[in-house]
Amino acid sequence: MKSLTHRGPDAQGEYERDGLFLRHFRLAIIGAEATAHQPMLALNGKVQLVFNGEIYNYKELAAWMGCPDLADQGDTRVLVEFLSTYGIGHIERLNGMFAFAAYFEDTGELYLVRDRFGVKPLYYLHHRGGMYFASEIKSLRSIQPCSLNYQKVIRYLDTATYPEGANTFYEDIIQLEAGTWIRYQNGKTEIRRWYDLAAEISSLKDVTLTVPEYEALLEDAIRLRLRSDVPISLHYSAGTDSTALLLKTKEVWGWDFPLTTFTMAFEDPDVDESGMAEIYCKRIGVNNHKVFLTPEEVPNLALELHGFQDEPYGGVPTIAYYRMNQVERQLGYLVSIEGQGGDEALGGYLYHVYLAIYDLHLSRSDPDLLRLMLQIHNTDLETAITAAERLIAAGFQSHTDMTNIRGVNSLPKEKFMDWLSTIQLYDVLVNKIPRTLRFNDRASMACGREVRFPLLDYRVLTYGIAFDHQVKYAGGNPKAPLREIIRRHLLGVYDAPKRSVVTPQTKWLKDELKPWALERIDVLRSSGFLPQHFLNESDSFYRDPAPTNSFPIWQLINLSFFFDFQ
Questions:
Q1: Per residue in 285-338, pLDDT tens?
Q2: Which of 234, 459, 495, 521 is 20 to 30 A off residue 452, Cα-Cα?
Q3: Has residue 163 been placed in a domain?
Q4: Residue 206 marked ligand-binding
Q5: Same domain as 436, residue 412
Q6: Packing angle of the helix pair 316-330, 432-445 (nearest 10 deg)
């Protein structure tokens, strides 16, 4: 269990009784050490709790319980008293990122609970008549050797997708799905979903939704996520989401509020966009730290990070993110807020745009907006319809920029309210958000840090997805509610087209990192784990004088580490 000390370097505690063993590693963010150590016993002796994450609305929760002074002891104390009083039946009142285990002493029930969107991880394993659980896979593998799920590895290579739902890259290790709980008692388990995003969106179908109300929800989400007893920074890319988040934070807390931003940077001017972040930060009046990643650092950092990720992860962007978290920890910033979720909630990706165009065509509800979107995105209706129908037929298996529309082992998706909301649900629950949260959690917690996501507040996310197309794409560009925040302060920036995160991965793998890449692929080739046609991807990549997609090469490099760790 020492393998989890990086997640909680500040304190350790344990509890053992009648076959139950709990151990906790604490990262101290809220609450004095003397009153916030875990495992924590409820004051009435009914519940033992171990808890990873934050309950952002712990002060409001304590007030609702009629015990506002509980908040003085931190969010863990509020949570354990809430559970001891109300049980598991009211957890929809929690606003936070959390994975916790609660043992009810009087009934012998153990509940494992995970937050709505799976910001915090939780895995479990059935072994020798018992159940073991942990925040990371490595701890469970130390209990029982676990076989790789070879089918999941092949699907990862075929479709560039990661295991979905409760699945992992291992046969016996199960991920507790987001928005679910599991009850374990007398060797029997019951699993139940306690949060349903689709139902929440549907409940807003006949409600008048306004941009001012959306901004009010976002303001409250930021206010809650700035609760901390340690310094907070903001991850800044100069994109729409992080710029709107930065400006809204300054609006909420005042322009004199000290907020430091951190930006991933590269020395290669062809791909480095940190200069734009520096310019915007000067205009807004906040400090900006650039954290550079060089190709020479990548091999060691890639191997190091795999030891924390446990499963295949994103390439150079994730390594650069890890390096940024290392620097933030060194400078004393233990918490960051980040703009993850804006694209998914407000239709920011190009494939969202094409499906929105397709919806407008089918509904014939707003021909003026349809024409404007076609014009801004430099396409015609026939091309957009054809691309949208291919994307739907491929089960949304595509890059977000509509390149590489696949269809391997995929089925067309069943339509939700419209095609745009259907792919948004897919991105939040299955595709984009789950894998990004995993990458970011492991990279930040490897450094003893946590990252918070105001745009993934369940109220903000639900409201955003439920907006009509006319609100999301007001003016023809996506994410209009966030652009409106920017427009108030940075004229000429609010209507800029979406920029994907740019990294030098393709260039580096083709040039500076080529010897390392080929060495790692040769290791994989000699292992005999994979069919030859996957390994031939490297030959095609290095023969192409101007390759544009380096992800298949990264997959092979990443899997070489993955198999080494077995």
A1: 999 999 999 999 999 999 999 999 999 999 999 999 999 999 999 999 999 999
A2: 495
A3: no
A4: no
A5: no
A6: 40
